[in-house]
Amino acid sequence: MRVEFIYDADCPNVAAARSSLINAFAKTGVSARWREWERNAPDTPHYAKQYGSPTILVDGKEVAGLTQEAAAANCRVYVGPNGQLSRTPPLETICVALSAGDKPATARGPVRAVLASFPAIGTALLPKLTCPLCWPAYTALLSALGVGFVDYTPYLLPATLGFLALAVGMLAFGAWKTGRRMPLILGLIACITVLLGKFAVESNWVTNAGVVVLVGATSLMARRQIVQPASCPACGPEQRISK
Length: 243
Known about the structure:
Helix content: 40-55%
Shape: elongated
Distance between the termini: 27 Å
Strand content: 5-15%
Number of strands: 6
Number of helices: 7
Radius of gyration: 26 Å
Number of domains: 2
């Protein structure tokens, strides 16, 4: 999501509008990151110079829903949810725009974490072919499925390490995007448990417990972050960030 704050350097409403934007980030739980454009600065893009001051864009759309032509006045005037006029974007309006813009991004990171955990879970559940007496049984089973027997044991540890690292990396990315660190902590515990159970103590119980914790961590990350509803009742036009 791309958030842009457009303003004139001499506009008396800039500080109040910026405070409302920060307050909206806190209310919706969206990561507080935005780009500011001073309309008369030489590096300001042409489209930003066409808006009045102050203006907030979310993914290129004006938060109040106005077109670029309608929002082109030098000093902006906004209409609040109750019909009152304001010289800054109403807090509720900003909350709704941030919530609508954040929904697709919120879902992508957790889904990737879940998909990245599948290979790690698969390698963790693969048996170690350390018993030569069991090889005929594996050969017969694979032959019935039309697959030749391959001793993959030498590659099991590096493959498990690689897939577990991928799962933890996606959990870390999801934690950075959503601010929820508990799934990442559970994922690290799960990886250590899987490695100990499979390659140290060689216990299926310990390995399976690690797999269960990893599934729980990815499921917890997959839960959507709760955002304010469209009406945003918690937001009030009178609320401001205190300094």
